[in-house]
Amino acid sequence: MTIQRHDTKARMSRAVIHQGVAYLCGQVAGPEARNGDITAQTESMLARVDALLKEIGSSREQLLSATVYLKDGSDVAAMNEVWDAWVPEGYAPARTCVCAPLPSDELKVEVTVTAAVSE
């Protein structure tokens, strides 16, 4: 059994791959967007997902599932607008969206993603 861990620190790995499936750690907006609105934060967060998927040999077309965490449920429509433009047509993953407290006050959205990895 092979398990690959990417960018492992004491608390977590940025991604873990097992049997062709990648489990990404939660992604949030980068520092440049953390004081922005939900649209800016969602765009930044998804750009970070793109970068991590590329780094591990995956892509948006290989998404399996996603869980989106929103600080405020009233942001769902604006977040979905960005999400819908980001997910390639015909490749939508299984997705859950929940309201939850986030680890810092300025954060409005976080996502965890599971994706297949090209072999």
UniProtKB/TrEMBL annotation:
Checking InterPro entries in the record gives:
RutC-like_sf, YjgF/YER057c/UK114, YoaB-like
Q: Where is the chain membrane-spanning? A: none
Quote the CDD domains the UniProt record gives: YjgF_YER057c_UK114_like_2
- A single Pfam family, by name? Ribonuc_L-PSP
Q: Which PANTHER family match?
A: PTHR47328, RUTC FAMILY PROTEIN YOAB (PTHR47328:SF1)
Name by which UniProt lists this protein: RidA family protein
**What is the species of this protein?**
Vreelandella maris
